[in-house]
Specification:
Length: 286
């Protein structure tokens, strides 16, 4: 990979600016409240700031753990300072902080991530007829991203397989997806990275299959640009289930794919990946 700088999505940069502006505004409000002698107003402003710090720390805990720990230390220090004026105000500040963080958690970790991980049921579509190179089953999560990015990536990979003589069955990871893998030579699993984890329907599908019995597997994980942890989790689950990973591909929507794959067009990358795949031992990634 070219370069060593840690990737930060553009939307995170905007979010950081908005959080900074909100924190400065709350700090000003807290100073005004303190100036006029309103302990409870100061506690409310301080608690909201602490809650924002906890929310950011929670959001980046897997990405930048040092930043996460630093924010938690700042949050605890800010809350403890209020005990000098009033234990009641300090308790109220902690309550406000927890409510602020709870709103974030329920909005993103529960509601948004839950919606993103909802199952989609689709029929099995067959591409290619001769199957001289083998039979492949592609199971993926469609997700809710714009343009159905993951679906397009899986279709492009399937086209690459078909170009070299594979017969490909493709469907979404649902309770109706086939779990009998005895008739296929290759399993392809595609998942988005949501909240640092691979899409839950794909993980559930692996559990329903149970023992992969040495089945060759290709793993495709997509995301804005921070897919490393999701890929690691999915690979570990496949290996524990007895799968043999032939290839593991991370494909991005906002980060430049050229730095890893040498091409900028994600569909071209996936078609090439499918076209070059062979069941002969090439490189195993465990």
């Amino acid at each position: 990979m070219k370069g060593s700088a840690m990737y930060t999505p553009p939307i995170w940069q905007l979010a950081a600016l908005l959080v900074f502006m909100a924190t400065m505004g709350l700090a000003d409000a807290g100073l005004v409240a303190w100036w006029i002698g309103s302990v409870w107003g100061t506690a409310a402003a301080c608690g909201t700031i602490v809650g924002l710090a906890i929310s950011v720390a929670w959001a980046v805990r897997h990405y930048r753990p040092a930043v996460s720990i630093g924010l938690l230390v700042i949050a605890v220090t800010a809350a403890s300072l209020l005990t000098r004026s009033s234990f009641g105000a300090a308790g109220f500040s902690v309550f406000v902080a927890l409510v602020t963080w709870g709103i974030w958690y329920l909005t993103y970790d529960v509601w948004f991530t839950g919606r993103a991980n909802a199952e989609f049921v689709t029929p099995v579509i067959r591409l290619g007829e001769d199957g001289r190179a083998g039979r492949a089953l592609i199971v993926y999560h469609r997700g809710r991203g714009p343009g159905h990015f993951q679906a397009r990536m899986q279709r492009a990979f399937a086209e690459g397989l078909r170009a070299q003589g594979w017969q490909v069955d493709i469907t979404t990871a649902s309770h109706q997806a086939p779990t009998d893998l005895s008739t296929c030579d290759l399993l392809v699993l595609g998942a988005q990275a949501y909240n640092w984890c691979p899409a839950r329907p794909v993980m559930d599908y692996i559990d329903r299959v149970g023992d992969l019995e040495g089945k060759p597997v290709v793993v495709i994980v997509s995301g804005g640009g921070m897919t490393e942890r999701a890929m690691r989790i999915l690979r570990t689950r496949i290996v524990k289930a007895g799968g043999v990973i032939l290839d593991a591909i991370e494909i991005w929507t906002s980060r430049s794919n050229e730095e890893r794959h040498g091409l900028s067009d994600p569909e071209a990358i996936m078609r090439q990946a499918g076209a070059r795949l062979t069941l002969a031992p090439r490189r195993k990634i465990a």
